[in-house]
Design brief:
Rossmann fold; 3 domains; 28 helices; about 750 residues; alpha/beta; seven-stranded mixed sheet
């Protein structure tokens, strides 16, 4: 049976109904034999006949592709498929009305949206068949994870709702572009389209994105594609009210529009109003369209197990394809023969696209790991030099504590690079109204540790501002700003507090480069006060280094400074390296001076890009201490004590934990034959294991080097001085472990 005849073979729709109708066997009383402009006017969608027919073509192609993907799956040529059947009218309408430069953050039902934007069936089949030429992900992602850099489609991920915060951040960044950077990736009058299923609106990140959108009145159009199901769970089982948009009626500055998403006419009306509202600067819009789910959730699901046949038949009667076809004929916009011609042409296009894609090379595995990161030293240094060329730091040679060094280094870069913007909890000096009226009276905050103090005053509230108390929002917004061409430097108040934003960090930020085949970077710096050694003042949730979990995530860089010089050099390298950098700042070292910390502030020629900036203290040949962050000054003091006992050692202080300067680690391990790694993380999956692996992977080296690790205990850090000292390595512990290693 040809695809044209099977076009509506879903639910309770009669296959013959549409076919007979289009062949003229069942004519509407109002049917007219030819297309004309007046008929399109009477239809009331305010689109010319040609555009309405193109919209119909898109809907037909989308359904045919759903069928073809299932066929490829059964043939063993593909591994997954997920359908947009039943949502074509709403999605095609949205895609038709958006400008080609309006960014799209789509979810998996948005096939028709992306076809309307210009993605071809061939390109979509490249994705389903995991082909190297797939423009969405180079074959790295599953089908229907839409993305196309040239067509302004932002790469999507599998976690439901995770796209919303990045979309909101992008809309906010676009609105601010004229004032801050002048010109960004997307035009400053763009709107951002973001879509989500009704079940996923239960996700907190969706809620946070709407709150952020109304607070900033950014040009976001949020589309709830409501088919009434979350896989096998009906919406009424999860929501107190089946009207999922009712939850948001009290939001200020939010236009809410509801409509029948199986009706092209209603969909066009709703999206035209929403897009105009957002583009005019009046605030975000929420478009809630009721659609039907005509196929199972995905190819791995069978909805006949949990949906009754009469219910499926009733949904089939609302199929948007025959519904739109009837309207086009009834209003005289097209003849049945013309519509059948569109079906046959689309059928041939889809068939040929699938055949062509099936012959193309599969994922190029040699490019998988290179696509995870963006950093190239030459490119990064050239960009950095562009903003510091010919300058001398006004703080060069000054004896500053680490907190002030970080502050000054960021401020100096902000003077010449307008792309640098900052937000976080409490990081601004004052509320903008207070800054204007009480600037001389009030000192201001500038972060709970004062690291950002004065930056808002120096560079303006449009570049440094306080975020909501919401870590997912802090991180998700950074994705959007980065996509628009900014360089966000955001703050998570404590490393321990990042967990509410974990999905944004590991599923959105860390994977963007990988899931676009290296096409889309999201450079940013996430600063976090981290670690313990607070003389008892901290505890769990305030005293964890926890570098290990960050090191586990491909796509993230990790730096841990320990004094003013290496902190200033590393923050410079972090901002310009091109990758997302987790900048862990040991808060116990913020204000320390003298000895290990007596390092002069570096001039602009001192920049530590990923893997650089490590420091060597001593040249003894008895053992090598390897440390980072808080444990570096601990080992520095231990060296002096050990030398008084006749044990001559050296200290390798690592500034970057990812990437580690592996050659330097091996060089100093080989030089002494004994290595003691002093780690503030716990032994299991901590940073110390990562460091030790540099030695273990060198078979010849590991045979001649004795490696010992000293780490935090297998417990969260306890409150009070006694508890903290028990949980974390102390100076006496380092000396004891070093003695035992040397004497063994």
């Amino acid at each position: 049976m040809p695809l044209a005849s099977r076009l509506t073979k879903i639910g309770g729709v009669s296959v013959a109904e549409l076919t007979r109708y289009l062949e003229g066997e069942t004519r509407s009383p109002r049917a007219r034999p030819s297309t004309n402009g007046r008929a399109a006017e009477e239809y009331g969608a305010d689109l010319p006949a040609e555009q309405l027919l193109e919209l119909y073509r898109i809907m037909v192609a989308s359904r045919l592709m759903d069928d073809q993907e299932l066929r490829l799956l059964k043939q063993g040529k593909a591994w997954f498929s997920i359908s947009g059947a039943g949502a074509e009218a709403a999605c095609a309408a949205a895609g038709t009305l958006l400008r080609k430069t309006d960014p799209i953050a789509a979810f998996y039902r948005d096939r028709a949206t992306c076809l309307a934007r210009g993605v071809t069936p061939y390109e979509m089949f490249l994705e389903q068949l995991a082909c190297a030429e797939d423009p969405a992900s180079a074959g790295h992602q599953m089908p229907a994870h839409w993305g196309h850099k040239e067509l302004a489609i932002i790469s999507g991920t599998s976690p439901t709702g995770s796209q919303c915060l990045g979309a909101q951040g992008l809309a906010e960044a676009i609105a601010k572009t004229p004032k801050i950077i002048g010109q960004g990736t997307y035009p400053s009058d763009s709107v951002v389209y973001c879509s989500i299923g009704d079940a996923a609106t239960f996700q907190g990140e969706f809620y946070e994105s709407l709150k952020g959108a109304v607070a900033t009145r950014c040009p976001l159009v949020m589309h709830i594609v409501d088919n009434g199901w979350g896989i096998s769970v009906p919406s009424y089982e999860s929501h107190a009210d089946e009207d999922v948009s009712a939850y948001y009626r009290g939001f200020p500055n939010l236009l809410i529009l509801k409509g029948d998403g199986t009706s092209v006419r209603e969909s066009i009306a709703a999206f035209r109003k929403a897009i105009d509202h957002a583009r005019s600067g009046r605030g975000p819009a929420l478009v809630h369209m009721k659609v039907v789910r005509l196929y199972s959730h995905s190819a791995s699901d069978d909805q006949r197990k949990y949906r009754r046949k009469p219910d499926l038949a009733a949904e089939g009667e609302r199929d948007p394809l025959p519904k739109f076809a009837r309207e086009l004929v009834a209003y005289g916009i097209a003849s049945p023969e013309a519509l059948m011609g569109i079906v046959r042409t689309a059928e041939e296009e889809v068939r040929r696209a699938a055949e062509k894609a099936a012959s193309r090379p599969k994922t190029d595995v040699s490019k998988i790991e290179p696509s995870v990161y963006q950093f190239e030293r030459g490119r990064a240094e050239a960009e950095y030099r562009r903003f510091v060329a010919g300058r001398t730091s006004q703080y060069k040679g000054q004896d500053l504590p680490m907190a002030e060094a970080i502050n000054r280094a960021m401020s100096e870069l902000m003077e010449t690079d307008p792309r640098l913007v900052m937000w976080g909890e409490d990081i601004a000096d004052l509320h903008p109204r207070y800054l204007q009226s009480f600037s001389e009276e009030l000192e201001g905050k500038g972060g709970v540790f004062g690291v950002t103090r004065g930056l808002q005053r120096r560079h303006g509230g449009h570049r440094v501002w306080n975020s909501p108390l919401a870590e997912a929002t802090i991180l998700g917004r950074a994705v959007g700003y980065s996509l628009q061409g900014y360089r966000p430097v955001v703050e998570i108040q404590f490393r321990d507090f990042i967990n509410p934003g974990w999905q944004q960090l590991v599923d959105e930020i860390a994977t963007m480069s990988f899931r676009t085949g290296g096409a889309t970077p999201v450079p940013m710096v996430v600063r976090m006060a981290s670690g313990g050694y607070l003389l008892g003042a901290g505890a769990l949730h305030h005293s964890e280094m926890a570098a290990g979990p960050l090191l586990y995530q491909p796509g993230l860089r990790v730096a841990v400074p320990s004094n003013a010089r290496n902190a200033a050099a590393a923050i410079r390298g972090a901002i310009y390296c091109g990758d997302p950098v987790m900048f862990l700042e040991p808060k116990a070292l913020y204000r320390r001076r003298g000895g290990f910390f007596a390092t002069p502030f570096p001039d602009f020629d001192d920049v530590a890009f990923p893997g650089e900036g490590s420091e060597i203290y001593g040249d003894g040949e008895d053992l090598t201490l390897i440390a980072y962050g808080n444990t570096a000054p601990l080992c520095y003091d231990a060296l002096a004590r050990l030398q008084s006992e006749g044990i001559r050692g050296r200290l390798l202080n690592l500034v970057w934990l990812h990437p580690i300067d592996e050659n330097l680690v091996r060089e100093h391990a080989e030089a002494t034959g004994r290595v003691l790694i002093v780690d503030e993380d716990r032994r299991r999956c901590g940073a110390g294991a990562h460091i030790a692996d540099c030695i273990y992977r060198d078979r010849a080296l590991r045979r001649g080097v004795d490696v010992e690790r000293l780490a935090a205990r297998d417990s969260r850090v306890s409150y009070g001085l006694a508890g903290e000292q028990y949980c974390l390595p102390q100076l006496d512990d380092v000396i004891r472990a070093a003695r035992e290693l040397v004497s063994s």
